[in-house]
Amino acid sequence: MGNRFLKLTIFISITFTLFSFWDHRLVGYLKDFVVFIHEIGHAVAALLTGGSVHTIELHGNESGETIAIPSSGTGSFIFVVSAGYLGSCLMGGFLLNRGFSGKMIRPTLISFGTILLLMTISYSKPGNLAQYTGIFWGLGFVLLGFFDLKINRFVLVFIGTSISLYSLYDLLDFTGNIAYTDAGIMATWITGANSTQVVPKSVTVLGYLIALLWSFFSLSIIFISIKKVFQSSVSEREISQVENSFQENGNTEVPFPGEVTPEVMEWFFSKGLDLNGKPLPTEFLEKEEL
Asked: In whole angstroms, what is the distance from residue 53 CA to residue 40 CA?
């Protein structure tokens, strides 16, 4: 997936396909999985803050529940509640990055699957949908990771896109019932409103603002993940062109054995040197001036 246009086409195609067939029965299994990732985000955040996790459940209607006790403190509660959507986007962005870059594909699949299995065994109830979902997808990723298949990269891109976009879709999907979302829970906690009574307007308004803020961060995470891959592919192509230029001019030495960043390469070229510290060919300098 070295071509930027191809990467963008794949990402847009997956996005369009997901939104087009979102209500199809078969996509329900994917929905359960991404909701499970969302709930794992809450659980991991609770553990990171020194809290405890009692159970993770899925209800089969694009909703789930994580019963956790974060450590005392305002920051811990905000972190745990926000970790569902933002944690999902971070994980989705990471998988997208690995899939598009083609780096550490098999270790990523095995590690991701292992984490799913550990969280499932530790915190899901026997017989609950969360248990079946975690074991099925976790084992699937681990098994894929043991084989060097070309489809593995596409799997990471597809799953990463699904997880990332679902966070945004879910925020929009529950806008008519904002009080029962994570954003509504945080808004209720901030305003001190009684959740058993009629939802006050302040909770609704604040809930929408929180949802918009999370959406902004989610989009930023997706953008940064994809942008880094595109930038790295451009740098690799430029380095390849320079190496080819050296070979065409009879220079068979391997340039600069370390990692070549765009800044390092630019510094060498500004001095009229190749990556071995030798003067660049005259033809190459003339091309650069043009």
From this structure: 10
